[in-house]
Write a structure and sequence with these properties.
Length: 155
Amino acid sequence: CMKEKAKTTTSLGIGTTSILMVFVILILVTFSILSLSGAKTDQKLGDMTLKRMRDYYQAEDQAEKKLAQIDQKLFLAKGQSNFVNTLSDIDGIEIVEEERLICYKEIMSDKQYLDIVIQLKWNAKEQIYQYNKIKWQTVVTGEWTIDEDLPVYQP
């Protein structure tokens, strides 16, 4: 007679499968929350960067317009070596006559401005003033404070 071999099967059972599914769902929910949090932070950073760039380029545009106004006045005053009288009616500029400097600022935000310094040079051959940009720099006016509010464990 042939002996019948007993068939043994192993099954995980319903309880183990349910626990595994709950664990997988918890992992997926955790990753989705982290992903959403990261996306919101990236959007906030992008919006702040966009605002700063927009503020910078608006200030630069105004600075270039003022420089064009200065350039036009100097060009129209060809042959006149007294640049102070020529530029005296332009608002918002400071003239340092001894060093032939023209300084002005364009506000970017409540904490930043664009600082511009132009140096004039008399071209005797053409009887006209030319200029060089000495300084075209963003200056921060606010005070920087270190954020030490990290919840780090200290024994």
